[in-house]
Amino acid sequence: MGLYIFDYLEILKFVVHFLPMKYRKLTKEQFENLHEEFAKFLATQSIDAKEWKIIKADKPEVAEEEMDIFSDIVWEDVLTKVTFLEHFSTNIINLFHCKNEVIERIVVKVTQKNINLLEKEGYEWLFKNVTSDAVEILKGSKSYDKERNQELFDLIEKGGYISKGALYGYFKTLITAAD
Fold this sequence. Notes:
The protein has 8 helices and 5 strands, in the order αααααβββαβαβα. By secondary structure, the chain is of the alpha+beta class. The chain has 2 domains: 24-81, no CATH class; 84-178, no CATH class. The chain has a 5-stranded antiparallel beta sheet, sandwiched between helices. α4 (49-58) packs across α5 (60-81) and α5 (60-81) packs across α7. The longest helix has 22 residues, at 60-81. It is elongated and about 65 Å long.
């Protein structure tokens, strides 16, 4: 017939070898925190602890590929579950509600020069003076420019972090009450 039957793992390894990672490799600390999950991941590929040690020693490139695949799987899972992100700078807080098709953003900007939102005093000042003329609150939304999880990953890599959305909810309530 002329058809070739390939082993699934061989195809997977071929694809991984030629495609770059979607996200980034987990840090050593992240791998340590996920060691049980990584062991289960390896087990799905029929790699036990003894064989993993051999692979790391004899085929470090294969070990790196396995770690890359696992990293992308973990990132994909985490990012798919993200609903809210926050990013703080000295005078601006960006709050994101990450929906499936659109991302909503609330920007809280402090125009008073001596206030630093990265310090406890500045953060406290914001909540005491949230209705002040020195506090600007803007909102907007947009469709994702690229794949949702990739955009969320980019925001995290730029210093954003996953939150439960309490701060977003607080400012959304203020905006809704003002409208």
